[in-house]
């Protein structure tokens, strides 16, 4: 069973107002690491983007899903929200943020974004960008410390007008580097604080060597 991400203290610094600790405890957020979770992500996005916003299938599932890190949020056993992260040389990109209609108004988007920024910060990024529907700029500007990108005009796709925003990423106190413990660097993406399967493998090899030497 995947252990949820820790309370995202660094990620919360990117929020203009962090939800209460009780709100964080009520919502479980984890990185997608299985086909089942990816199907849950696709179901949420179909409900929001395809059903609500009438986005065509080929435009919603755009060829980037298997090259991205997805986060999924649960209340109890029910998946209620998701977002997608993609990584470039010196910035990351937050995409496909969506919450089930029946679950809105519970700060789920803030909690998902705090976890996303926490991961970006841990990876050493200092900038995330977003392409947001222009009509939602007032909402994004209230949720995150972010700015409209200078000199960039709006653009349109899938029948909506979009704006580009910059989201500064707070510096993490313990970022991943090329000098980090090798076993931390091979743990599942976004799950760096829990011992991974390959560490169990290393212990098995160590035990076998001791037995052979005895």
UniProtKB/TrEMBL annotation:
Molecular function terms, GO-annotated: acyltransferase activity
EC number: 2.3.1.-
Cited Gene3D superfamilies: 3.40.630.30
CDD domains for this protein: NAT_SF
Top class in the EC scheme: transferase
Keyword Secreted: no
Domain N-acetyltransferase: 27-168
Pfam families xrefs: Acetyltransf_1 (PF00583)
Record key words, sorted: Acyltransferase, Transferase
Stated name of the protein: GNAT family N-acetyltransferase
Lineage: Bacteria, Pseudomonadati, Pseudomonadota, Alphaproteobacteria, Hyphomonadales
């Amino acid at each position: 069973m995947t252990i949820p991400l820790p309370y995202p203290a660094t990620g919360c610094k990117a929020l203009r107002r962090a939800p209460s600790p009780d709100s964080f405890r009520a919502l479980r957020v984890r990185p997608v690491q299985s086909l089942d979770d990816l199907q849950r992500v696709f179901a949420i996005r179909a409900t929001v983007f395809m059903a609500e916003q009438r986005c065509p299938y080929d435009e919603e599932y755009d060829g980037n899903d298997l090259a991205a890190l997805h986060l999924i949020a649960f209340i109890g056993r029910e998946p209620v929200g998701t977002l997608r992260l993609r990584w470039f040389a010196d910035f990351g990109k937050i995409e496909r943020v969506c919450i089930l209609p029946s679950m809105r108004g519970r700060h789920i988007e803030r909690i998902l974004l705090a976890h996303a920024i926490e991961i970006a910060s841990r990876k050493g990024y200092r900038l995330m960008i977003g392409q947001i529907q222009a009509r939602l700029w007032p909402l994004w500007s209230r949720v995150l410390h972010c700015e409209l990108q200078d000199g960039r005009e709006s653009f349109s796709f899938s029948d909506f007008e979009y704006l580009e925003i910059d989201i500064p990423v707070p510096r993490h106190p313990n970022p991943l580097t090329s000098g980090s413990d090798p076993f931390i660097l091979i743990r599942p993406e976004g799950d760096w604080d829990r011992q991974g399967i390959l560490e169990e493998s290393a212990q098995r090899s160590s035990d076998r060597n001791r037995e052979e030497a005895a």
